[in-house]
Amino acid sequence: MSKSSSETLRQSILSGATAKLLNKVTTNRAVAPTPPQQDATTLVSKNVNDFTYYVRKGQRTEISEITEVLMKAFHPQSQPAFDSYIRRYKYNHLQMCFDAIDECDRGLYVACAVPKQQQSMGSTASMRGQSDEEVVGFCIVDGRTPDPSCKIEHLTQSTLASTSPRPYLSDLAVSPSHRRRGLGELLVKACEEWTRHRGYDKLYLKVDEKNASGMGLYCSMGYAKTVVPWSKTSSSKYFEPSVLMEKSLVATKVSSQQKSEVKREWLRNLWRRRDGTVAGYESTASPPPL
Q1: Are the C-beta atoms of 229 and 186 separated by less than 8 Å?
Q2: Residue 225 contacts residue 149 (beta carbons within 8 Å)
Q3: Which strands form 42-48's sheet, in the order they lie side by side?
Q4: Mean pLDDT, residues 132-143 taken together
Q5: Cβ-contact 143, 166 below 8 angstroms
């Protein structure tokens, strides 16, 4: 066999082997099953009454649904003229949040409701996208680098009405027909987790001081009124009666010495009566957690 024939044969064998290998890889890719993956956008879920609720990241395609939730929650009986204006304002604001703020600087979360009948169709992740899924809650956390005017030491009563320290939680809304089911707490927890993941140690929010249910929710979750730089006695009749609140997201560790002191104080109080005499052991008393 001549040298040229050998070279031709070698090239033919290599070409055939390469084509066969590529065809095998393509076939394997086509038939290989997709490995199961955790739905990272579904954060928390719960079953209440006839619905399964879950919180996940909001999508830009859901702006109209989110706007409807905000209108039902904050303006349920608005006049037609005002309704049109405020609806358009909220819609445009949501567009700005999705488009103008980098995804790494904001977290937008929705609470969804799915009738329990669909549970037989699969997990929470598989229920997403079903026609019966309804967006019933919303919340946003703004984590952009704050301007100097947003810092606590630079806030005034007038600037607090138009700005807030960051990261800042806002627009917590739940449709009236789905309230009192823990959705507000789930949405706030989603924002807190986002804040921790971004490395912040505090989360701020504002709530109307006349909003008893809102104040109760935030206080029960560990939020407290922020110490503001202006005087407590200064007049605020020209400004919104909003309360600025904050929560530390840094876990505090209790030392063994502090635990021992708590236990000793509990034991002292256990046997002490108001008149100074020693009381007997109360069977209903329980020691503090150690």
Answers
A1: no
A2: no
A3: 42-48, 51-57, 106-115, 134-142, 168-174, 202-208, 242-248, 224-225
A4: 93
A5: yes
